[in-house]
Amino acid sequence: MYVTLREVLAEATRLNMAIGSFNTHNIEMLPAIIRAAANQKTPVIIQTSEGTASYIGQRNLVAVCRSMAEEYGVDVVLHLDHAKDFAEIRKAVDAGFSSVMFDGSALPFKENILGTKRVVAYARGGGASVEGELGTVGGTEDGICISKQQVCYTDPDQASEFIELTGIDALAVAIGTNHGQYRSKTSINFDQLERIRDAVHGFPLVIHGGTGVRDEDVRRVIDLGIRKFNVGTDLLVHWNRASLAAYEANKENTSNREDVLPALDAVAAVVEHRIELFKNISSAQSGESHAAE
Ligand code: 13P
Fold first, then answer.
1. Molecular function (GO) terms listed (predicted)?
2. Is 189 in the pocket of ligand 1 (CB under 6 A)?
3. Which residue's alpha carbon is at the smallest distance from atom 1 of ligand 1?
4. pLDDT-derived band of residue 292, with 50, 70 and 90 as boundaries?
5. What is 5-292's CATH number?
6. 154 is in an annotated binding site
7. Per the residue annotation, which of 81, 169, 234, 259 is the catalytic one?
8. DSSP strand pairing (144-145 vs 138-141)
9. 291 pLDDT above the threshold of 90
10. Which atom of ligand 1 lies closest to the CA of 233?
11. What pLDDT is stored for residue 137 in this prediction?
C-alpha cells in the first residue's frame, strides 16, 4: 500500500528495526529500489530532493510509487528530503507525497519550531507526515569532511521540546554522521544518541548520511531508537560505476537500456544489503527462523 511515514515508523518501533529511506535521482532508479524492498518483504521509503522532484515531476513520482506499491504488495512512502522552501513542500503535498521533511536545522531554535509547525499544519491537511531536524549533520566532498568545525550535536532537551511543540512524526538527529561520506566511515557519538533516545522516550529518530555508517554500527543505532535510515550516495556511486563501465563497453547505437540495466542491478544489490541490516535480526533469531522453515 501507499502509506505515510508515521505508519511505517510505528511498525518499525514495534519490531525494533529501521526502515530504509533511499534517495532516487531519476525515474529509472525508483522501480529497482521498490522491487528490492519487495524481495526483502519490508516497507520502503523513497525520498527525493526538491530538485529531483521537479526534474521527474511530483505527480509522476506519486503515480509510480502508488502503482508499484499495489503491484508488488509492499508498503511504500514517498518523502521529500531536506526541503527548505514552503512552496516546494506545498507542491509535493498537493501532488500526493505521503511525507515531507522540513529542514530548519540552520535556523535559530525558535524559528525552526515556527517553520516546522507551519509545515506540519499544511501536511496534516494533505494527509502527509513530517520529519523535522535539529542540530547539524555534516557534509563531505570526495570523502573529505568539510564541516568538522561546525558540528553541532542535537541537544536532548531541545529535541524533546521540539517534538512536543511542532507535532512532527520523526526527528532527524545530528550524532556525527555526514552526508556524502563514501570513501571513509563515520564516528558516531553513541552516548549522544542514547541521551537523545532517553529524552524523547522512544520517539522515532532519523539518521542522515547513512552511506558513511559502518555495517557493524547499524544494529547499535537501531537499538538506540533510529527508525528511518537514509542512504543516498551509496546508490549513486554504485549506479555510476556500473553505468560508466556499460557505456564504455557498448556501441553508440546500442539501446541505452543496456547501459542502465547493470546500474539497476548494482542499486538493487546495495538496497537489499542495507535492508537486511535494517531488519536488525540477530544471528540467534535468524538461526531460529531458518530452523523453522
Ligand atoms: P548519504 O548520501 O550520505 O547516504 O546521505 C543520505 C541522506 O541523509 C539524505 O538526506
1. fructose-bisphosphate aldolase activity; zinc ion binding
2. no
3. 209
4. very low
5. 3.20.20.70
6. no
7. 81
8. antiparallel
9. no
10. 2
11. 86
82 within ligand 1 shell (Cβ under 6 A):
yes
pLDDT at 5 over 70: yes
pLDDT-derived band at 290, boundaries 50, 70, 90: very low
The residue ranges of every structural domain in the chain are 5-292
Model's pTM, two decimal places?
0.94
Q: Is 274 in the pocket of ligand 1 (CB under 6 A)?
A: no
Cα(122) to centroid of ligand 1, in Å? 25
Give CA separation, 125 vs 90, 120, 128, in Å: 11, 9, 8
For the Cβ of 20 lying below 6 angstroms from any atom of ligand 1, the answer is no
For residue 154 and ligand 1, the question of a CB distance below 6 A is answered with no
Is 211 a known ligand-binding residue?
Answer: yes
d(CA 61, CA 66): 9
Q: Has 223 been annotated as catalytic?
A: no
Q: Which atom of ligand 1 is nearest to the CA of 182?
A: 3
CA dist 68 → 7, 58, 60, 219, 246 (Å): 18, 16, 12, 29, 27
